[in-house]
Amino acid sequence: MPKVNSMRQAPSPIRSLRLIAFLYGLVAYGIFLFTIIYAIGFVSGLGVPKTIDTGPEASAIDAFSINTLLMALFAIQHSGMARKRFKNWWTRYVPNCIERSTYVLMASLCLMFLFWQWRPLPTVVWRSRTPTYSS
Q1: For the chain, which residues make up each domain, given as ranges?
Q2: Are 55 and 118 in contact (CB under 8 A)?
Q3: Which pLDDT band holds residue 101 (cuts at 50, 70, 90)?
Q4: CA distances from 111 to 14, 29, 77 (A)
């Protein structure tokens, strides 16, 4: 029986890597979307289990210190990974095609960590009221 050669070629490794990078990007940006929606709920107190006003009780000094460290962690990660010098170093280990997705994923994970570990302040920091207008 004669051999039949298929016209179909096996997928190239580059094509497979592009697909993996694309799927990784979808996951990273999906996590980002979830995190941003959760952030809205976290600040507004709507639709999420943990908000800015809930969590383990702590003294004002402890809550302020922990929250400041959490915000600093996010700021350092977010700003540090955005710097050209870091990107030049980072892309020696991570392919260029997933560098941005990795940045987005790391920023989202830092924010999730902030939400999880946030301590509510036991005192009112500020209160806004609807102004009354008289004519």
Answers
A1: 15-117
A2: yes
A3: very high
A4: 33, 14, 10
